[in-house]
Structure prediction request, 254 residues.
Amino acid sequence: MRIHILTLFPDMFQGPFHNSIVKRAVDSALVEIHLHDIRQYTHDRHHTADDYQFGGDSGMVMKPEPIFEGVESILSDLTQLEMARTRVILTSPQGRLLDQSTVEELARQLHLIVICGHYEGVDERVLEHLITDEVSIGDYVLTGGELAAMVLTDAVVRLLPGAVGSEASVRGDSITTGLLQHPIYTRPAQFQEWGVPEVLLSGNHQEIKRWRRERSLERTFHQRPDLLARAKLTSQDIEFLGKLGFKGKENSRG
Ligand code: 6GU
Prediction:
């Protein structure tokens, strides 16, 4: 996969992309990450990438020309077949909320081109005629789209085959399974005055599996009840949740 990021602040990406799993994925050629400074596609002396808003109002708007030029220069190197598996993404608080199923869909592409939105926003013609997806990472406002582009890149890269040590660990992800993760423990079995739940030391895999499932259900019920509406639940799960006060999934698709 190749990920192109168009940004006014390429230096912001040095930390996240040069450590841990993303770095390893780049080093082992699972992914290429190309940073493009939007100002390199400007042609005036001051490298102007933003301008005042028509109709008045405070705040600057990102100009369309350098963004079109940057994206088109990347697209011009692609074949028709590659184009069919390319997404042009704008990060913006107005976008669709990024979730794991969107990340999975993006991980199946050949090329991602990510434009980091800034200032009050981006000229609407970029949204109308250049991008395929507009993505937000949550209901809060960031100073710019760079952090969102890093989040998106990180989430996509870890799904590329070989990026994370164990495929099973990726498939068993909390959220991927529709439930939050159960509590986990490591050595020592006794830390200060706190032990580890007996069942985990019992060697009884049936019991351990059941304990984990119930803790997942419990956590999800208390922290993210919204997830239960979409989770794949067995009748045993529903019975357990019922004891916690869960009122069932009558208003959901199940
Ligand atoms: Cl993609 N950009 C900005 N500026 N704020 C955000 C966001 C993006 N996603 C959530 N908040």
